[in-house]
Fold this protein.
Amino acid sequence: MSIPVFRWRSPHERFLFLLSPLLVIFAWVWVSRLGLFPDQILVPPQHVWEAALGLWESGELQMHLQQSLYRLVIGFSVGALLGVAFGILIGLSNTVENACSPLFHAIRQVPTVAFIPMLILVFGVEETFKIIIVAKAAFFPVALATHDAVRGIPKAYFEVARAYRLPTWLLVWRIILPSTVPPVLTGLRISLGRSWMVLVAAELLAADSGIGQMMEMGRQMFRIDIVMVGVFVTGLIGFSLDRLFRSLEGRLVKWKHQS
Amino acid sequence: MATIVLAFPGSVAWAEQPKEVRIATVAHYNGSRPSFIGSAAVIEKQGWLREELKKRGIRLVWVPVAPQSVGATINESFANHSIDFAGYGDLPSIILNAGGVETRLIVPGGRGNNVYLLVPPNSPAKSITDLKGKRIALHRGRPWEITFARLAEANGLKLTDFRIANLNPGAGAAALAAGNVDAFVTLSDAFPLVDKKIGRILWSTKTPGQDWKMRAELWGDKAFIEKYPDITQIVANAYVRAAHWVAQEENYPEFIRIAVVGGQDAEVVKREYADDSISWKARWNPVFDEFVTSHYRNAIYYSRKVNLIRNAFDESRLFEPKFVRQALKDLKLEGYWDTPAVAASTDKRGSS
């Protein structure tokens, strides 16, 4: 399985890569110059830029970003680790899978944001609830991808392991993890993106800091420029995380082939 | 041109009329149907506005807005001109106008609604000063923020002296119930929380001498009211007419009944109006007076001070008092509200 790894190739590709964002910015400048919509609805790009600079200079943007990324890192790490562990478990054991699958698949189908009111009641509006929300968003896609990957390992591998009487940790470390790397990494990458989206949504609803909360305050204060800054930052962070993970995928796939 | 207008007055009038008048108002949802409260419910019950507009071939459309985010939703609707009027609060209107979307206060909503500061029943707090450094659920940019800020200021405190959790009223109530916040600032939805022993009222705007009630009133899109002053006058007349009807003591039971039909709890409404330092009639005073002016002057000053708006502006920019003046004339109510606003003794309405 080939993993698309991002790298600059040629000026032509570089141009194509930048084409769609440049077109959107061009259209944005053009439409706002035409004055079809009032400034308050379609905020001109320079206003958004000024708002971004203002937020940066006051340190507000960094503060919100730091909070959001902290929640993402903690929540995603917890959710992804549990997801991999649970995925391996239900992948290896039919009994566990049969016992857990109805609940697992039912909860998986409920949108993460639907849990927000209940989680607020139980855990309050502080950090715990946001971290749990992110962990939940990360857990399911990772568990599912790991399960499918483990099930996809050829039976012969396990037979060899049994013949060599490999201890379980070695089985996991030397056979299961390397042979499941590409699909699990794809699951991790997808769940990281989802976790980020869910976190921003949770912050929109209840938080006192974070990018989502910055946008919600912007909306309440009728500062659409701030909302737009939030939209861009959210997109940029999501995009960068995705790129980062793709390059990590590339490196780990190499490790798989070496091991 | 004058000759043409004189020759075809009807056709010109028709050409210059909107097809509908859209008024946004807070609505509660009972099932899937929105039910209206306050002035909108009274006006709809009276039916006068609908009839008057119908005579001119104009449809009256109430645009329901859920209580969770009235300010932001109505501001966005004014910005994209999807509504012509709205009955809503003071602070969102200031924020909107500071943002460059121009609206005007057409009919003041009287003396306003009470704001309540709730703490958990077992809280040791005796006054707001005991809440310094504590976590408080407050939906930012909503009218009761100003009330809370004024209370804090009067006690030598600032908003930054508290840890503010920016939560909408529903989430704020849940946070109070779960013990995640030490206090919650809200409107009359405080009473059900008191009854469920989720909170107790530490302070409210009923306190004599601290009358910083939040204001919710009729605002109009500046472009609309300039283009259609006669239609605006009809809408203003309907609101003043409704205020006059409610202000009459004998209509109080019917007023409560309308509120109940709108999905409000009779006891909650009665308690909201009970034991108030302002007389019943004065509560519905639609006249632009010093009370209204100073309220907005103060609110703009506060908004600028805590950076809710980027530039301060003169409060008179927000007002368009000519419609109320004309309405009082049309309805022969000039002088009706020329009485002292404060009750001689505390109004005991509904406290039985």
